[in-house]
Design a protein that fits this description.
Strand order of the largest sheet of chain B: 5-6-7-3-8-9
Shape of chain B: globular
Number of strands of chain A: 0
Helix content of chain A: over 70%
Strand content of chain A: under 5%
Oligomer: heterodimer
Radius of gyration of chain A: 19 Å
Largest sheet of chain A: none
Structural class of chain B: alpha/beta
Strand content of chain B: 25-35%
Distance between the termini of chain B: 50 Å
Largest sheet of chain B: 6 strands, mixed
Distance between the termini of chain A: 38 Å
Number of helices of chain B: 11
Order of helices and strands of chain A: HHHHHHHHHH
Structural class of chain A: mainly alpha
Shape of chain A: globular
Radius of gyration of chain B: 24 Å
């Protein structure tokens, strides 16, 4: 049986991008956030006597954080393939440009969902509990899927537009920092935050993903998460369109 | 590797498999990297594109392999239009690009992944991989990462990789860059073997010796235009009305001797000097020889080395490029 082109590309992307270094970044970094931040800040909340478990707050946030990590891998795949000549080599092979792009997006999705599952497993081990309702699980994985496509497309857009390695790395680090720390991944949106920072929280797509995953995890989903997901869906379509256009128009070679 | 070739369109040896007419391409809308190129490549031949760096060879390869869409003109590969049937064309071609291109894995891994990408079933993939590792002398480095190899080894991996799958036409963009003499010959011989089995090869190079060794027909390309195109022997004959004499004189009187010789030979001979050595192109090698000997005796300048040789591809190349330069200057 002949395996479709797209699956062959996904297989290749997974094989090429699952070296130990990439896996440490992809799963190890969020895992370490979960353990170090989870237990580190847990002691603060315990000593303050609030009674809330920071670890149970952080766990769904870190699952949402996977969408950024997976998106970064997607952008890095395009960047590396262009930098090391494989993009033009693949495009003189039996694939279309669109298949290549879809291959990267779907590989990001594989990484995003696998990473979220790993985090869920770690959370179960640490907390002894987790979401069991099918609807909650569906919301969690649907929001992670849309979020991964959004961040994958965003990173592909940057990767298609930026020509310098240094510029690409700097932009990526900046985006990672702002997106992660101006979201509800690590702490809740509080009315005590400066207005500008609150605004940033509220327009940050990672906040939508984190809120939806958290709502699904704790069984407290409300209409707000529904609106956020709708907005995320629209933003994803826009960014995906821009990324596809930029990629289709871009020079395939690095030279 | 296999004897059978995947093919849908022209089938007879000698039929055109690439057809290019008045092809033009500009990257910046001002300067044309290809400026009205026309030629055809016939099934089963090795077609050489000769030219200096920046002459337009790689742009032409990119157009034929569907990587770029030409600005204007007509291009057909295996009877198909790259603008409409790019994927069908790409399924039937192999391409060794000038720049290196590898996945971050071992040599063996690179060959395997390539086989998977081309949908080669596992038993066949393993058989081909092992055969190619041996044939391209890559067995010892099979577990090394491709990026850690020497320049020549990397090139061999790139070429070997294209033999993992069947193809009708193999495009090679300067494939021997960085290879030592033995490996270069091994590679050229491998390509010859494949040509005997029915493969068509389009080959760019600025190494004239290897074009002479491998190509059936060559096109000399300069500033995006084809200056000459013919079978090698025809070109040599066409540009070979003249013979080439090479000589080296002793002592310090070289410049004076060559100056006198230029005058004695007259306008029908072209003389190019380099210190005590000179290359003379002439239609009358016998007459030129007697004048050289006579002048050497008269002036007392010893002749250290004298050689009359057949025209080579290098002569064809240099003369066609020079002729183009002269016609541009006179225009």
């Amino acid at each position: 049986m002949r395996v479709p082109n797209l699956l062959r590309l996904i297989y290749r992307n997974v094989v090429v991008n699952t070296d130990p270094g990439s896996l440490i970044i992809l799963v190890g970094l969020p895992g370490m956030y979960l353990v170090f931040f989870g237990f580190g800040f847990q002691s603060i909340t315990s000593s303050s006597g609030s009674g809330a478990s920071y670890l149970s707050f952080l766990t769904p946030g870190i699952m949402a954080f996977q969408v950024v990590m997976a998106g970064t891998v997607g952008g890095a795949m395009l960047w590396a393939d262009r930098r090391w000549g494989m993009l033009s080599q693949l495009l003189v092979g039996p694939f279309t440009r669109l298949q290549y792009l879809l291959g990267i997006m779907l590989t990001s999705l594989v990484f995003g969902l696998t990473g979220a599952l790993v985090m869920l497993g770690i959370a179960f081990a640490l907390l002894g509990t987790g979401p069991t309702q099918p609807l909650a699980l569906a919301v969690i994985f649907a929001s992670i899927t849309v979020g991964t496509i959004f961040f994958g497309a965003l990173m592909l857009l940057i990767s298609a537009l930026v020509k310098s390695n240094t510029a690409y790395n700097s932009i990526q680090i900046l985006i990672l920092f702002v997106v992660n720390f101006a979201s509800t991944v690590f702490y809740p949106l509080s009315s005590g935050l400066p207005l500008a920072l609150r605004g940033l929280f509220e327009v940050n797509p990672l906040t939508y993903v984190a809120d939806a995953v958290r709502g699904g995890y704790s069984g407290t989903l409300t209409a707000t998460e529904g609106y956020q997901m709708l907005l995320l869906g629209v933003e994803t379509v826009v960014v995906l369109f821009l990324a596809t256009r930029a990629y289709m128009r871009s020079d395939v070679s690095y030279e | 590797m296999g004897a059978s070739r995947v093919g849908t369109t022209p089938t007879k040896t000698g039929d055109p498999v690439v057809w290019v007419e008045n092809l033009r391409h500009s990257y910046d809308r001002h300067h044309f990297a290809l400026d009205g190129v026309s030629f055809e490549v016939r099934r089963g031949e090795v077609f050489g594109l000769l030219g200096r760096n920046g002459a337009g060879k790689s742009t032409l390869i990119k157009a034929m392999t569907t990587l770029i869409q030409p600005t204007s003109g007509t291009l057909r590969v295996l009877g198909l239009d790259p603008a409409r049937d790019g994927q069908r064309i790409r399924r039937q071609i192999g391409v060794v690009q000038q720049a290196e291109s590898f996945d971050f894995t071992t040599v063996q891994g690179n060959l395997d992944i390539y086989g998977i990408l081309w949908g080669i079933p596992k038993p066949e993939r393993v058989r081909r991989r092992e055969q190619l590792l041996t044939r391209f002398d890559l067995g010892e480095v099979r577990k090394k990462r491709a990026f850690d190899l020497s320049g020549g080894q990397k090139r061999r991996v790139q070429v070997a990789r294209e033999f993992m799958h069947e193809c009708e036409i193999l495009f090679l963009d300067e494939p021997t860059v960085g290879l030592d003499v033995i490996m270069r010959r091994t590679l050229l011989d491998s390509i010859r073997d494949e040509v005997r089995r029915g493969l068509t090869v389009v080959f760019t190079t600025h190494n004239l010796e290897e074009a002479d060794y491998l190509c059936d027909r060559v096109a000399v390309i300069e500033e995006g235009r084809i200056l000459v195109l013919d079978e090698l022997e025809n070109l040599k004959r066409l540009y070979g009305g003249k013979k080439t004499l090479e000589l080296t004189v002793g002592g310090a009187d070289g410049p004076r001797f060559f100056s006198a010789l230029t005058e004695a030979l007259g306008p029908l001979a072209q003389l190019t000097t380099n210190g005590g050595s000179a290359v003379i192109l002439t239609e009358d090698p016998k007459g030129a020889l007697s004048k050289i000997v006579e002048l050497s005796q008269t002036m007392g300048v010893p002749l250290e080395w004298l050689n009359v040789r057949k025209n080579t591809l290098e002569d064809v190349f240099l003369r066609s490029v020079r002729r183009e330069g002269e016609s541009l200057a006179s225009a």
